[in-house]
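One record is kept unedited as follows:
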Amino acid sequence: MFPEEGNNADICHIEALSPGGPRYNPDSSDEERNAFPNLMLLCKTHHGIIDQVDTAGQPYYNTHQLKQMKQARRDWFEASRATLFSIKTPSLLSKIVHSLSSLQAEPKPANVSHPFKIDAKIDFNALSSRHYGIIHKYSVYYHSVECLYNELEPAQKASLLEAINDIYLSCQRPSISSDDLWDNVESKLIEKLNNESKHEYSEPLEWCVNIIMVDAFMRCKILEEPKV
């Protein structure tokens, strides 16, 4: 299923809005303090962490460090967006989605999933840091994949997702680790695409298959949903 809906981020001031706050700059105006260059998005946990102070009453993170962190994140996002929206990649991802839509899924009872947090599912399945990184790296493409899925007929979309689930179920073995299971599903998907597709792929498939895999993970077609 899908991660819990809602906004889990805080808009944080790099230099505090009020006197006495972390990194407060008396030389700035209220307008400057509330302007974009002085704001950054953080989860609630890290919002608290950046405002913690040492024994001398000084924040652990100074203004320069936080602005560097913000810029690094923006640079990463722009690089990721440029990669996704380059000339070749959307075409390749679209080809893969349409190829997978032709896979036949085994009929099975409808599965009712519940909202969950991505990290909770990662922890529940005891995935390693390698897959933790893959999931967080490619989860940002969820809406791009959804747009491609919406180009399909509803039955094709449903069949595609169930076919991925079938591959996952076929790879399950007693005592297999979640990491090995993930890798086996990925290998099977790549094998099927290479064997059954009418397209000739001029680029490596791993990048786009990882996007599809992470999307399937978020839709609970791969690995187990955390217990409620």
